[in-house]
């Protein structure tokens, strides 16, 4: 697995040495589908720079230019990409591109003074060029910053925050605009959106603000003030709306119109968009349950609440990772830590502690004060058999379960116990660590020691995957969903599988293995299901950052 980033608002910096660039996706959607709909040709220079003018395929660079399109098609695409340009400007662009001197000069945005009293605004947010219009009516506090407003718009509309965005103060494409963190990292010069408040841009009924999203599909939104509220709402609220958000990467209004007509016809094959070879292919590409006429204000407000929620206090290392994710424009880790369940209890009763630590106590009992390993460094068959029997592995493992090299669950148990500092291998013997020999009979003490060692590993990959696993477990995620949720967080942070860069990265880590073992993985032999409340409580205890001395039995680092 390697870390990389993509030209996207949600992933900002590329670590040295990484070259696999892929578009990320949000935790609110499945991994990105292949883009089935045509978008404006990337060879045309637009005011925005999200879509690269090159496509890398099998190591060769190819460039798409306007000359590869027929004149009527190109003219139509220019009208789609530049609806506000005059016919003369479009003609100039069509025949060879506007010279720099022919383009309007983009002025700096002008801000209103910060009001002495915070008011609220009732606004209508319209998705331009959709017929019938897709819109939302929102109530928002005036001190909402533009980065916060971006998240509000994403949640209210139903976008997945998978592309770049831009705020501007006029309808003209060269109107004053604000730069995102990504733009600044790319070297653009101008006014950053950070710190700019909504009430510095609008003040009265009828005032407007423009928001562009996904410069390939070219979704343009207009936010218009309908009423000024004397009292600002405590949080963003949706009080009305119409129609569902278009699917991501559907090709802009052209593709959306085709999809909407097809779905409204109950998937009539004669109306099926040509990009799909069959009805089944098209339905599989669409987001599950998507219908253009669907809108649910209650669901929208749930997304708004999630978008505005902030995680509680966490430990120092996780806080730094959370800050890194924010710098990259990523939401997956923050949304996970902000889940209400992450604020749940951390207490674990004695019976639960005994159940969680059972496999490790079985191992410690089997090795006693210490036992010799085989010449090849494995546990002896009698010890393997005892562990397999008492830990429940023998009930489902195929084979005699008396050789460590042929009994993977026992080998994994020993490896995790050593990584957790429970056992020490030295001079051909395996023995309990000194602190464990003194306190290992106490499940609560053993659990505190394990908590103090998690997450396991020293490499960035293991640490990030470990914290992701703990965050997912802490918010009471059903265990069968752990791998996907962890992989989504890692993908959002920029991690990729070198063998399949476009797919989700592997979620496995020593920390995940430990959580699965604590959840009863050794006894079942099957994929875990449901929520183990004791494991969730343990994960919360760890992510909240208790002091190391309080979290484990002792400070021994024997190996």
Automatic annotation (TrEMBL):
Q: Where is the Plasmid pRiA4b Orf3-like domain?
A: 121-298
Cite the SUPFAM superfamilies for this sequence. MM3350-like
Q: Where is this region: Disordered?
A: 1-64
Q: Where is the composition biased (Basic and acidic residues)?
A: 47-64
Q: Which Pfam families match?
A: PRiA4_ORF3 (PF07929)
Top-level taxon of the source organism = Bacteria
Q: What is this protein called?
A: Plasmid pRiA4b ORF-3 family protein
